[in-house]
Write a structure and sequence with these properties.
It is a single chain. With 131 residues, this protein is an all-alpha fold. The chain has a domain of 69 residues. Helices cover 85% and strands 0% of the residues. It has 5 helices and no strands. Helix 2 packs across helix 3 and helix 2 packs across helix 4. The longest helix is centred in the last third of the chain and has 32 residues. The chain is extended and about 70 Å long. The termini are far apart. 5% of the residues are buried.
């Protein structure tokens, strides 16, 4: 068991290291913070202001949005990361190191998808009855 975990760790170590470096990049953190403010932050601010100022409609709208965020399968986190990546490309186009990691991850995903589609096509051809 210990050997399997060590092998698994060695297999995933480079990928996890790249992902960790990408996520902890200061430019990405700034863009993620802005993205979070766009998707979630406004609701927390409005909830605080509505509660503090006694504005019931502001508290109601922000509470409803915040409650919806806690439902399972809310795509908010995916949208936040997508906004952060878009802002990263927009605000820091010369940050080649971070964009290179992103590009490499995208290329790996494309290759895996092409291999999967090729395997599906091959399986379909193998299963077709001969006339």
């Amino acid at each position: 068991m210990k050997q399997k975990l060590k092998t698994l760790y060695e297999k995933w170590k480079p990928t996890l290291k790249k992902a960790w470096q990408f996520i902890l990049n200061p430019h990405f953190l700034i863009c993620f913070g802005i993205g979070w403010m766009i998707t979630n932050g406004w609701a927390y601010i409005c909830f605080g202001l509505g509660t503090w100022g006694g504005v019931k409609w502001l508290t109601a709208i922000s509470t409803a949005y915040l409650a919806a965020l806690w439902f399972p399968f809310t795509p908010e986190k995916i949208i936040t990361v997508a906004i952060a990546i878009g802002l990263l490309k927009l605000l820091y186009p010369n940050d080649q190191k971070t964009l290179a990691v992103l590009h490499e991850m995208r290329q790996k995903h494309k290759i895996k998808k092409q291999e999967k589609n090729a395997k599906k096509a091959e399986d379909c051809i193998d299963k077709t009855p001969e006339a």
